[in-house]
Design brief:
alpha/beta; 34% helix; globular; Ribosomal Protein L13p, Chain: A; two-stranded antiparallel ribbon; single chain
Length: 145
């Protein structure tokens, strides 16, 4: 009887690609889910939980993201410095005006593993408020491969 073993790719065996996602007019949660899946590599047949098999993701037009319901005024983001009485709260509406990139980063971060691999995946996420990005060379190289 032939024994088969499960294939686990090593970190150097996985080719990385660059994906460009335009989020103008799309819903925040649905886009964040797609980005998290791409960063983890769960859409690839070589997915392995303990190895980063995902791609680099470039997100464009973060300032044009769409949310449903009354989230613009009701959804709150919190930041705390660690000192007593220093809890800061921000509405989604204010965050979209001041730092729209951070809204997508926080949504995706909550969907990734909360460990060192998740932090490494977050470094592969590049979010920009406008429709231009400085990664043209990487995207062009990945498209040619």
């Amino acid at each position: 009887m032939k024994r088969t073993s499960t294939f686990f790719p090593k970190p150097g065996e996985i080719p990385t690609k660059w994906r460009v996602i335009d989020v103008a007019g799309q819903t925040l949660g649905r886009v964040a889910r797609d980005i998290a899946i791409a960063l983890q590599g769960k859409d690839k047949p070589t997915f392995t939980p303990h190895v980063i098999t995902g791609d680099y993701v470039v997100v464009l037009n973060a300032s044009k993201i769409h949310v449903t319901g009354r989230k613009l005024t009701q959804k709150l983001y919190y930041r705390h410095s660690g000192y007593v009485g220093n809890l800061k709260t921000f509405k989604l509406e204010d965050m979209l005006k001041s730092r729209p990139e951070r809204v997508i980063e926080l949504a995706v971060k909550g969907m990734l593993p909360h460990n060192s691999i998740g932090r490494h995946m977050m470094r592969r996420l590049k979010v920009y408020a406008g429709d231009s990005h400085p990664h043209q060379a990487q995207v062009a190289t990945a498209a040619n491969q």
